Fold this protein.
Amino acid sequence: MLVLVSYDVSTETSAGRRRLRRVAKICLNHGQRVQKSVFECRVDQAQLETLKFQLLDEINEAEDNLRIYRIPEPLGKHVMEFGRFRATDFDDTLIV
Amino acid sequence: MLVLVSYDVSTETSAGRRRLRRVAKICLNHGQRVQKSVFECRVDQAQLETLKFQLLDEINEAEDNLRIYRIPEPLGKHVMEFGRFRATDFDDTLIV
């Protein structure tokens, strides 16, 4: 199954930027970054639970917002993409 | 139907910030902002087409990335949210 992870953190603080990097690392173990704070992960049900708990361990629930969306098959019917795909650009230093 | 609009634009330029504001305005006509560049819109099929074309009119496809995801019902099964919901915080000046 495809899940979309979108994560909103204040990147004005170094702690926030560090959390974003750690969230990105966890998500990249399961999929790819499609936008600055949006990741598409391929997981089964058990992996989704693991992903969820790993992410909850990293985020600061008092400050950040984490959203996980299950995107059902067929993806062609549920996902539309326009413009420049920039996933690879995100591995260098994250300036927001 | 619920659609998720996530929009990635370089906000280092004033043109990029203006495009993000205009994208936000369009999306807010149909729903709410749930993260800095992520919006949840309630639309029917015809409204989705209108939303899509309005957004494509605004974005710079050479620089930006726009993703639209259809999120089927029941939402409780397809959407998980954790942490602080900050939708209302985004109406003031967007500092990224």
